[in-house]
Amino acid sequence: FDALLPALQSNTIDIAISDMTISEERAKSVDFSKPYYIAGNGLVVNIDNTNINSFKDLEGKRIGVSIGST
């Protein structure tokens, strides 16, 4: 993921198709198409966890995220 924008900027690749969120900061260096897919994001928890149902319930919790994602 982290290599996609530099690869576009150096013409190593022509197009990046990925789960990249359009942002003002990224739009300063690359040209985005109109969104081709709109995804609803949600929380994913262990099936036995009944204590986390919303973002409010995340206070004090350990959260895992992908490096370079938005």
TrEMBL record:
Residues 1-52 form the Solute-binding protein family 3/N-terminal domain. The keyword Signal applies. It holds the Pfam family SBP_bac_3. Keywords: Signal. InterPro entries: Solute-binding_3/MltF_N. The keyword Signal applies. This is Glutamine ABC transporter, glutamine-binding protein. It comes from human gut metagenome.
